[in-house]
Amino acid sequence: MSDIKMIEAAAQRARGHVRHTPLLSSPFLDEIAGRRVFVKAECLQHTGSFKFRGAWSALSGMTPEARAAGVLAFSSGNHAQGVALAAQLHGVPATIIMPEDAPALKIANTRALGAEVVLYDRAGREKREEIGARLQAERGLTLIRPYDEPLVIAGQGTCGLEIAAQAAELDVTKAEVLTCCGGGGLTAGISLALEAHAPEMRVRPAEPEGFDDTARSLASGGIETNNGPEAGLCDAILTPSPGQITFPIMAARCGPGLVVSDDEVRAAMREAATRLKLVVEPGGAVALAAALYHGGALDGDTVIATASGGNVDAGLYAEVLAAA
Amino acid sequence: MSDIKMIEAAAQRARGHVRHTPLLSSPFLDEIAGRRVFVKAECLQHTGSFKFRGAWSALSGMTPEARAAGVLAFSSGNHAQGVALAAQLHGVPATIIMPEDAPALKIANTRALGAEVVLYDRAGREKREEIGARLQAERGLTLIRPYDEPLVIAGQGTCGLEIAAQAAELDVTKAEVLTCCGGGGLTAGISLALEAHAPEMRVRPAEPEGFDDTARSLASGGIETNNGPEAGLCDAILTPSPGQITFPIMAARCGPGLVVSDDEVRAAMREAATRLKLVVEPGGAVALAAALYHGGALDGDTVIATASGGNVDAGLYAEVLAAA
Fold it and tell me: For the whole prediction, is pTM greater than 0.90?
């Protein structure tokens, strides 16, 4: 089970390998939000998203024997790149199973980072879990789950350790901390880290409309599932439901979820570019969108939002920026 | 005269006010360049460019009496915003004289940061220096020059102190350090800082074609002037010639200048977005363009490029990204 000791151990293993990302701000964002806004720029992490933290934690925390045999991951893109680079840096093979319709940039990057990419058809006969089970059996690979894996949650929690330390330097001890939430690995990890190091902060997951499984699960007290489409603008965080491991961690620590529209996500991407000079992908902009446009649902004078990734295809990004 | 003591004093005054910007990298950029590439992300500085360093140094280094009367600056945009915010944070008035055709974003931001903006027509009868002299006399303002001012050079030099420290952490002591060069404030400041703290690094100014006054001045040994058009893609760095104070500093310390095309600048802007998740403006991308596309003119296995600003109008930026 993930706890603060595992997060601190992950932070030790991460030293010199995982970037400390900056906590940025702009008076222009404060004005829109009506309170102080800080943005944890995880899009500047290696491979362009926080996922490298969890991947590094998992690879560095495995037994050398298991690691040497290679790792396997399912991912639409950011976890894929994180695992690919962490494996490459450890000198071990990575096999990544990705949907055919994942963003082209994410597929190309995963391959360029040395991983073998196996594409599957979301609507096809063979499910990705079946493909994975076959490859695991054939090759002796260790599966690295994207969020329901204690070492991965611990790695994402190192982001929370940094938030606590960076906020303390600015004399901020109390804040609403908004996370971009898919399966809940980042949200769970940060909430464990802040519980120990910044107990007056409250973590609140943000999700896009139609994919608000975590918000509904926190409200009902049980794991809820999305019933809408499988694909959408915020591709990085469209998991059907919170995880079996991440949900209890979140349920015990996180405040009500926040839900934003795709138009708010696009507007937040533009503000991140104009005000912070950050390229943020749709799924990485939901927390900032909630900070900027859902102030009525927030408490206190300070909000911290994770900008959790920046892997957006150039065409879509140019389209979002041009729509200003 | 600027020296390392002035830079270190500026760094002391900057503590808690000026951001330490990250030194970023990507294996994809290393591959393009054929050597290790590090990017000093000054676009993440307050107001979106390194100019805030010099402005903060100047405001914090003035006598309180002079400061209270207010400051004046000429600028097409980045120095304007830096001075405006530094003045606002010191609680003193700022008057900024800007060309009418400066990027709309830069004019709007300068106003939003509390400065009084006086627009002038580049082709008009009254020169900006005349407008400035009139306002100085009327209001008792202190002029903060964008580069030919020892306190400003010292402030820009704090960027060099950070580069030396960040590179040392990565065990890099020898590198070519490419700067985006207009009047030479950043280049001169960094070269003084590295001479003291990383003497095996060599600073080399990068400029756009048609505005290579510094490269030609370093080659001839005397101050040369651009004879082409006044405006261009890289608006932030289109000064007609290196400064009277900055040039001797550069001439004694900097290697041959590098000259890049506008197409190379656009390509570097796209790589910064895709690989580093940084929004870099044209004038802030010339050093990266030189690092990526002029490798034949560089020595050694490591290059460090400043990404000196990110204040680009959304329309132009979307156009550059969409052209990929």
Answer: yes
